[in-house]
Amino acid sequence: MSAAPTRKARPGPADWQIEFIERVGSLTDVSGLPPSHVQVFAWLVVCDPAHQSVDDIRRALGLSVGAISMATTTLTSMGLVERIARPGERRLYYRFMPGGWERMLRARLEGASRMRAIADDALSRAPHPPARLAEMRDMYAWFEAHMTEMMTAATEWSRED
To answer: Are the C-beta atoms of residues 144 and 119 closer than 8 Å to each other?
Structure first.
């Protein structure tokens, strides 16, 4: 009689990982994402191994399969997470997308550029634009210029590695 193969249970997250997830999770108001999405994102940044199945994520975070599914779908569509199929396995895995940080920051830069352009257009069309509209345009223009500089420097820095 042969014994059925047993799956080795992975230990739960370490204390530092739990603290990281909790601290990142407290920033949901900044990201605009639901807490479960932020938790999955944070876990995929610090988990080991880097690729995780839905069951791995569920065990680590205690979230429902539905919450994980919604989070991975959203994070995948944002270009932050990728779905991986491993040869010979039906199970799907998720991992933080290589280059995800740059993609996330470039999306923010694009948003700032669009907001600045909208404010520019409104300023050019309004006979007596409110000062707060000019302030909005100036702030987004400042952010756009400095973020572009930083993204250029970061791209050069990452190529040096």
So the answer is: no
Answer yes or no: CATH 1.10.10.10 is held by domain 15-96.
Answer: yes
Domain ranges of the chain: 15-96, 100-160
22 alpha carbon, distance to own chain's centre: 15
Closest CA to 96 of 88, 107, 104, 106: 104
pLDDT classification of 91: cutoffs 50, 70, 90 = very high
C-alpha 42/C-alpha 63 separation (Å) is 13
Residue bearing tokens 């352009």: 117
Q: How sure is the predictor about 161, in pLDDT bands with cuts at 50, 70 and 90?
A: low
Decide if 21 contacts 46 (C-beta within 8 A): yes
